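[agent] plan:
  1. take the single chain provided in the ticket
  2. run structure prediction with default settings
  3. attach structure tokens to the ticket
  4. add a short note for the reviewer (M.T.)
[agent] executing step 1
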Amino acid sequence: MALFAEIPSEGDARRYDIKSPVTLESIGQFQSATADEVRAAVERGRKAQRQWATRSFDERAQVLWSIVDGMVERQDEIVDLVVKETGKALNEAISMEVLAPCMQISHYAKHGKNYLATKTRRPSGVMRFAKKVTLHYQPLGVVGLITPWNGPVALAANPLAQALMAGNAVVHKPSEVTPFSAVLLQEICEKAGLPKDLYQVVQGDGETGAALLDAGVDKISFTGSVATGRKVGEACGRNLIPCTLELGGKDAMIVCADADLERAADGAVRGSFFNTGHYCCGTERVYVPESIYEPFVDKVVEMAKPLTQAASGASDVGAVFWDKQMDIIEDHMKDAREKGAQVLVGGERNRSLSGYYFPPTVVTDVDHTMDLMRRETFGPIVAIQKVRNEDEALELANDSDYGLSGNVWTQDLEKGARIGAKMVTGSVSVNDIAVTYGVAEAPFGGVKESGVGQVNGEVGIRGYCHVHPVIVDTTKKAQGGYPYTEESAEGLRKMVRTVFGNKVLRRLFV
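[agent] step 2 finished; step 3 output follows
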């Protein structure tokens, strides 16, 4: 049964019914915004943004603080809606969709002013004696925000806060699978005092998303699949606008021979099962040296077996958020079995519940011929591969088309940092999982097919700005360039010889 299905409607309208993955019952309907409606939203946003850009950082921050107040006040409403839309476990709905957004929004309310403060400096080299440079961080204008279904509030609120603090308007197209959380977020923002039309939600399908790309926005912030990310990148290139693309991952976990097995096994379980495995920096591959392989596997099995699933949300592992994702998970498991993988826990859809549930699963005897170790599975599966040593683990970890994040487990923190530095990923954690996105100061983004650009921290919020340098000549006379003479040319030659031909002086001048 499709959770997202088109229903009959009049004329050219595209109307959809949304079912909960928990009960498979309808939780609402929506009509896709047309291209004209999307463009009109962008135009309204541009008008609202002009006034917003004149507000001080302190005024913008006060609105963000009020949004946090609104999220705290309505946290139960947020959680109830998110659980209906996604089937998340209750604890994860609270931690990911309320706590994390409150932390992120608060960070930019407090630190955004410093990140974006005008900065004046003297340039390097010979220019230092005659020029002064002032850097202004100007808002881009209207940001198009396209977000996925696995974190309907968290993955919207974070870029929204950055864009707003930087002085932009936002037109947001949420996933068609989880369209209602964004409407609630918009309502909270408006009640917090955010000016009308500064943050608008346009519900819709892929056509609506495509319309947003060509609606005249000044930047696109996209989180989603690699396939769709390529299309977004192509459109942004065609329209000559910047974009950040936070795409898929196939994160590797390297367990060193000296790791604390209890702690590492707990990391593998949490990293693979959190959010039903539906998060881009979730652990999808675990590499363990043969010297500790069996006791490590035993620990993981011991921790995975008692985990529960229930339609109430009061369980450990929630529903699979989308029927299409269930198909991918089952296909990857079928491929792994056919190629010799051993399933120690779970492995088959949980049909004791009426919704879309796949149990926490532990798989061993896997290798890189299997989709489970090559393609993004996005499900609650710990896939463990035995390796000879840490060098082979690192080689296999880097043998991937993806490169979002990864983690290393060892009691030697310096060794963990050394191994982590050799992982070809956007970020690495030592003795932790998926922490980078939650550390607001840490830039988060992928390499290879995992994306373009970075979000979060100073780097992230400045990505919603045009850095506008104003260079002032501090001398009091004309530069005297024309007419060129042999004497002036010889003067330039002498400067090159004197300054850059002298190894001491050239270091002083740069």
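[agent] step 4 note for reviewer: The longest strand covers residues 131-139.
[agent] ticket updated
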